[in-house]
Amino acid sequence: MSGEVPGGNRDLTPITLEHTSVTPWVYNQLSRTKWDERNPCIGCGALAGVARVCPEVRNFASLAGDDAIRDDVLESLNTVERHRFVPRRAIPNAYENRPLSIGWGQTISQPYIVAMMTDLLQPQPDDVVLEVGTGSGYQAAILSGLVAHVYTIEIIEGLAEQGGERLQRLGFENVSTRLGDGYFGWEEHAPFDSIIVTAAATHVPPPLIEQLKAGGRMVIPVGSQFATQWLLLIEKDDDGGIVARQIMPVRFVPLTGER
User: In 48, 80, 140, 238, which residue has its Cα 20 to 30 A from 164's Cα atom?
Assistant: First the structure.
């Protein structure tokens, strides 16, 4: 799963925005936390509320000119403890609004990008969602509390094993994971109410369009690794017609696999 600091805002003019850091008090609290294998971040749970994550996301959304992100999406960000989805060395930085390395050349997306992409899906309690790019499992965990079921695919074997084990251990029972090439979707469980892709494709994969339910939404970054990438919102109407909108410039690692 991979997302970078966005390079623009809703008026589609590419700009650079510095990430909004957590308060020094929160950073110091996390930095002082003693590591314990039985409780990976003692005290972090008490810091996982609205006072930490939501203001960072709301502030960054305001700077980027975004409309208000749904309260249930923000609540999910506050419920899911991000420090449990990053490597041990990154725990002190887990609640900063920026991407963090998770190994294998991949990143966990910054909370703002996770919030925006989730919000664009307009998730509903009965929805079945496909995620392409499990990564650490963080995006699937955020969606877990908002929809009926999440199917998530990861092409990197180490991440697929690690992410699947983590999601199971943390109790996200309505998330199913598998190793595979997400370009081709997960046909056995299609059609999906919405699809989210967490790596940049050079084009929108046709199998994902086919597996998107009529009336459904797909959020996907499109573009090459060394050129401007755009976060696209794709909507399929009741007749199967497709409408795509550019939301904002972004920077993601490339979608890999055989085409």
Answer: 48
Question: How far apart (Å, rounded) are the C-alpha atoms in residues 235 and 215?
Answer: 7
Catalytic residue among 2, 109, 136, 144: 109
Q: How far apart are CA 66 and CA 25, in angstroms?
A: 27
Domains of the chain listed by start with CATH number: 24-250 (3.40.50.150)
208 neighbors 185 (Cβ within 8 angstroms) = yes
* Amino acid, res. 143: L
Distance between CA 129 and CA 218 in Å, rounded? 10
| 109-132 residue pLDDT tens | 988 899 999 999 999 999 999 999
Residue 109 annotated as catalytic = yes
Global confidence as pTM: 0.78
Phi, psi for 63 (deg, rounded to 5): -60, -35
- Torsion, Cα 104 110 116 121, to 10 degrees, reads 30
Helices (H), the chain: 24-32, 53-63, 71-79, 111-121, 138-144, 157-169, 206-211
Joined tokens for residue 78: 């506050």
Q: What CA–CA distance (Å, rounded) separates 151 from 168? A: 13
